[in-house]
Amino acid sequence: MPKVLRVGLVQQKCGESPKENLRDAKEAVITAADSGAQLICLQELFSSRYFCQTEDSRNFEAAEEIPGPITSEFSELACLLGVDLVVPIFERRSAGLYHNSAVILDRRGELVSHYRKMHIPDDPHYYEKYYFSPGDLGYPTAELKDANVGTLICWDQWFPEAARLSALGGAEVLVFPTAIGWHENEEKEVAEREIDAWLTIQRSHAIANGVFVIAVNRVGKEGSIRFWGSSFVADPTGTVVAQASDKEEAVLIVDCDLRQVEEVRREWPFLRDRRIDSYHELYRRFRD
Length: 288
What we know:
By secondary structure, the protein is an alpha+beta fold. Helix content is 24%, strand content 30%. It has 5 helices and 17 strands.
């Protein structure tokens, strides 16, 4: 029997009102579920505008604990719809300690995976080191009814080690909730190069690990950034099987035949041929 996982990617524009962003996300989840999606994925920090463009301590007020209000709301929704959800959250761990996190809620509404973003960027208009501590929960894999799913977040997508460790933990599907875009007035040639690199690195994770990759990015203009959307699914050969617009909101529904994981890994046995005895220097920052 085919082992097909139908996934739903929710690509959203975010406004000033967290209440309205949550409402829109929940409506999109319902739309995806009505289309038969079994695993539905939201974008990074989906409940607010991307506040990391400035360093402002007032933004910490938006953080919440896990479990908390958002996990409670979406837990009820997952149970009601009978779907698995990937839900990113601005996590308040303790006073003065915050993480950029994501949870997976299964169709019973239970929290089955908690991931904290491991790689934290600090670039112009992406001042995430001001807000987030690096993750310390490793690279967990959720064993769901229909698939084993690993979650990584945005900047993590540039690091092959993160994808590899998730795959070694049993993930058949890697989900990357994301907030990435172009700076205003960016030259067209530079912009095209950036999005091509973004697609290429994630397709390479699919190829190198023999997994499906799901990238869910926000869209629309916020401050000085135009988020480029383009949410997509790549299969274990790195082929982009579906992609959303770079300008409009979307609920992208994609069927993933998980038999491809086994088939591609037999043809391209990268896991078999890894020379783990020779990789000890990966523990070093750089070989001087």
